[in-house]
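Morning!

As promised:
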Amino acid sequence: MDANFLITTIIGTVCFAVLAPVIGCLIDGIDRIVSARMQGRVGPKLLQPYWDVRKLLGKDKVAVSGSEDTYIGLALFFAILAGGIFFSGGNLLLVVFVITLSSLFFIVAAYSTRSPYAEVGAARETLQVMSYEPMVLFMAVAFYQVVGTFDTSGVFLLRHPAICTAWGAFIGLCFVLTIKLRKSPFDISSSHHAHQEIVKGITTEMSGPTLAKVEIMHWCETVLFMGWVGVFFVFSHPISILVAVLVALVIYLFEIWVDNNFARVKWQAMLKWAWIVALVAGGLNVAVLAFI
Amino acid sequence: MELVGFLILFPLLSAIALYFIKGNGARKAIVLGSAAVIAFATLVLCIGNVSTPPVFYDFESTIVEVACMVIGVVIGAIVLWFAWKYKNVLAGVLGAVQLVASVVFDLVFAHSVHVAQGLYIDSLSVMMAFIIGIIGSGICVYALGYMEDHVEEHPEQDDRRPLFFALMFLFLSAMFAIVFSNNMTWMFTGWEVTTLCSFLLIGYTRTDEAIANAFRQIIMNIAGGIGFLVALYYCAARMGTLDFNQFIQMGLSAPAVIALPVCALAFAGITKAAQMPFHSWLLGAMVAPTPTSALLHSSTMVKAGVFLLVKLAPLFAISVAPAVMVVLVGGITFTLASFMAISQSNAKRVLAYSTIANLGLIVACAGVGTPEAVWAAMFLILFHAAAKSLLFLCVGTAEHHIGSRDIEDMDLLFERMPQLARNMMVGIMIMFVAPFGMLISKWATLVSFVDNHQVALIVLLAYGSAATFMFWAKWLGKLSGVAGNPDNVEATVHKSEWGAIFTMTTLALVFCIALPWLSFAVVLPYIDGVYHQPVFSLDSDVLALMSILSLAVIIVLVAGSVGGSKKRRVGAYLAGVSVDNLERTYRNSLSQEAKASVRNMYLSDIFGEERVTPVGVVSTTIIIVGAFAAALATMTALL
């Protein structure tokens, strides 16, 4: 095997492990402030998410199930690995599969507690994965059709950004992003608020350092997903990277706006709409790209 | 060649011995001894022929020809006898048609056609031999312990274990005959023997349900067998050959000529591989004792169907009508069977739908017919065989010890049967997530679909995979639950069952870790021999990374579950005052005791069988009829 590939992946993963939590934490801080302003509140300080996680890390180590921590550790590791592969120019489809593996371990961690609320949350999270999975695959396929390779480094050789011909897949991605980020109206497995009908859903039984790992994992995921958004705008011109970052920010602000303006839907609606959007936006885009 | 002959004949002799020797101890010795000999011979064959190019052996034999005819007559007679005994008209008619057709074929047509090279070996048949010889004989060993419990649990049924074990070994013999025969008549004989064996195994318990399901199986598979016969007639009469390799070569130079026989053979493959609209026979086969299901689903029967289709893959790449049929039937079956698996809580039924779905994917890959698609198909066959046999064996053992095969009853299996639950979880993970084998194969499948602009297949794969995640993840979640200290009921599991289960787990994991090597040493040589061109589906880098990750995940999971956590244990949150947290009971707002229990989601309003099945049956029937019409039109245009 090519040693370069392994080394690039390892360096990328280490860099991602250091940088993504920082960036993700800042995004989370901005998220809370913007959300607060939309609701007519002042909101917490920018670094509040960081202090929250620090506090969690200092708490007592208690657990309902002995294996929960192992599963969460694996989930965090694979989320970081997925980010590392993505930002070091690796295979996009591999990134998709690795982040799915991360979600699976997160789900299994919740199941392993046998807590009724966590189990309902885990079952709903499984539904969320099933809802967004087709669109995510279409996105990767459309990317491949446009760029000619699944490697994200391929975008730097493009003469036009992928968005020019893959805008259908991009719209579809933006739609399922709300599910992936667990934002309202699709925050059915675990909302930011503990007062929903299933308490805190999938994270009900996670506490202290385990919950801190979950938070860090979400930060990493957010950065990775914003990377997916941005990669549609990058091409051979260096300035495009800046454009990509700006677009990612705009899309994130849009997600916050959606989060604050839509009431949670039932899972039936989520599944139905996610699959329809995937077929219309993603499937059609893939079909068109296949025949031009 | 001696070894090939030995592998075909030895299980046959074991089968005869097992049928006539009734003693319990003797049976045990014969089964263990034969399984060891078969496994050893298979290993010798595989090691001696790693990366072998196709080798054809000059072998003609009047004895084999006569034997094939006699076997054909015997099969027909048995089917007719059972049809008469149970008054099943359709089975009787089909059996009679097949009996007459095959005798006429043997006496009139096959006589004039000589096949000089009756046997052959290539990398695909080596891989299949490994699956049959190692996994198949492992299942036979497992059956020893399982059947002992089965006989104890069902005192009302006759102890017909001699027949049962004889059929299991006969099955292996027939499978070896299929994968090593270059003479299509011999292959057909093996094909029919597997049909008959599974008929008798499904009907083993002789309950009304078992008999009804056995007849469903035989009717569908004899229909497929008649399809095979049509192809044989065509080959002998119009093309003047019954040499399988020659048939493929002739087809490659004249695609229009072979449209009809390829359609007919593909039809046979589709029935045997339990594709829609013929999937119901495999679901019905569940009534048989679990080792039968394991054998049918993993290493024999359905694998014969996909083996034939993979063999025909180069022809699908150039012949439109059969290719469209195979691609669409496979793709639709994959998606719809995955949907229906969501709605099932019976573990064996989930496994059955998952088998049907994965076979659909293999069938679709074969239909695409490019080197990349065949690469994916071969890996799907390999990983599916290992992981699915493991899962069936685990479910069978769990069923005997917890008294249920319902996934909801597997709650806390991790504590009641810790070893078994771990093996089962490994099997499930290998079936559907990165970095394990099945997902890598699906990935290669996706790439080959994209490269061939198979938009319909991409869409079907995307939705089917999403459903796959759902039904495996919730099962995996159910197994992972840890709480309380229920009785460990694992101590009474037979040693032979453990032996087989651990062998399957080890095999499946070794396949995952050795994936890059397998690609290089087993799959690529076959593709090179068939297509004479290199394959570019997945980077060797990616394969190597997956291999490393598989190892890492296994180590962490084993270490994590052995080490245990030092954290302080607390009870689960129950939104009330807990009465007994281990039992999940609490005092509710009316000061009454209530128990919190959760069931998985089965979404039967959306993915229920009665909603999905008609869609699949109607659409695939239309596709198959359309493809045959197109193939017939091509043929008449040629005349």
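Chain A has nine helices and one strand.

Hope this helps with the figure draft.
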